[in-house]
DNA sequence: CAGAGGTTGTTGATATGTCATCTAACATAG
DNA sequence: CTATGTTAGATGACATATCAACAACCTCTG
């Protein structure tokens, strides 16, 4: 570990500007979401992940993998969201240790209410600043990295 | 706000995969950093921002802008980092409300110690998965978005 | 200069995230 | 079947982030 392959100028610019962009964007979007809806940014992500599924349900560990969250974070967060009525937990028949998180009617209502403001902000800060081909390049690139993250270590 | 311009398929893919990539990457990198060094991911960012400056100092509000952090978050975080000896605060002569954050010797030492492992992880998870032109595209794109974020609202 | 309004940074209460540890259940080797 | 190791998830103590309120100072206008 002593002869590290440092980043060259291109690599460093790409990585650092991406990180700073992300920090700034997350800050803005989290503030917007909190101001205009009852959802936090993490709440929003959980609900988005659940609505990705046709039945709006997912095993806890899978949700954790998708979001890249520690299991205890997820457990606490889902507990809070359950108290607020945004999701419920259901037992899993095939694995009695396991549980599903399921989005509720109320959860759907809240994310639908939050979505317009959020999407508008995403447009203003990100999407509308870029060309279609830049957006495609981002999508493809992120897809590659995500696939790599899914590989076993 | 009732006729929202929703994202089309390309835009949505780009935005969502970028967000999920970021969440996953941040999770992995934060865990790596915590395991291999005494720094958290936020600590690392603060120190990187400071080492960007030739004199290793920055006004608090400016650091907050660069990172996209609330001022109170920054204030608390800098206070903790000060206690650990990673940075110090110095009064500002030209504006007596103000203060500078300055990286200490110890801070430089810690970030230099943490950097190799971090960079190696960044390579493994991100940089090495992409071609030079993909990286350049990312860098340019992020630069555009960052510039837009700097515009007055 | 007075005063109104904005900016810089801090504080303390509360919300959220992390870490270590735990229980229950599964998987499999013998 | 049973002992060993692994996985799913919950829990409580602690670390970190957010929110609202505040004090001190600047800036500008009259």
Describe what this molecule looks like in 3D.
The structure is a homodimer of 153-residue chains. Chain A is mainly alpha-helical. The first copy, chain A, contains six helices and three strands; from the N terminus they run ααβααββαα. Chain A has a three-stranded antiparallel sheet with strand order 1-3-2. In chain A, strand 2 (87-91) and strand 3 form a beta hairpin. The two termini of chain A are 18 Å apart. The model of chain A has no long low-confidence stretch (mean pLDDT 95). At the A-B interface, helix 1, helix 5 and helix 6 of A face helix 1, helix 5 and helix 6 of B.
The biggest beta sheet of chain A is recorded as: 3 strands, antiparallel
Tell me, what's the shape of chain A?
Answer: globular
- Mean pLDDT of chain A comes to 95
Q: Which chains share the greatest interface?
A: A-B, 59 and 59 residues
Oligomeric form? homodimer
Instruction: Work out the helix count of chain A.
Output: 6
Query: What would you call the structural class of chain A?
Result: mainly alpha
CA-based gyration radius of chain A = 18 Å
Please indicate the percent range of residues of chain A in DSSP E strands (runs of 2 or more). Answer: 5-15%
What's the count of strands of chain A? 3
Low-confidence stretches of chain A: none
* Arrangement of strands in the largest sheet of chain A: 1-3-2
Task: Estimate percent helicity of chain A.
Answer: 55-70%
Distance between the termini of chain A: 18 Å
The H-and-E topology of chain A, N to C, reads as: HHEHHEEHH
């Amino acid at each position: 570990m002593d002869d590290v392959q440092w980043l060259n100028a291109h690599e460093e610019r790409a990585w650092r500007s991406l990180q700073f962009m992300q920090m700034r964007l997350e800050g803005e979007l989290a503030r917007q979401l909190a101001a205009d809806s009852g959802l936090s940014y993490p709440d929003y992500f959980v609900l988005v992940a659940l609505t990705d599924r046709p039945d709006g349900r997912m095993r806890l560990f899978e949700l954790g993998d998708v979001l890249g969250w520690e299991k205890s974070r997820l457990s606490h967060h889902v507990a809070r969201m359950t108290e607020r009525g945004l999701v419920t937990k259901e037992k899993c028949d095939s694995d009695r240790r396991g549980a599903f998180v399921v989005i509720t009617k109320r959860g759907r209502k809240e994310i639908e209410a939050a979505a317009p403001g959020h999407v508008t902000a995403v447009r203003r800060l990100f999407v509308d600043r870029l060309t279609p081909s830049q957006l495609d390049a981002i999508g493809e690139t992120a897809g590659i990295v995500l696939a790599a993250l899914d590989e076993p270590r």
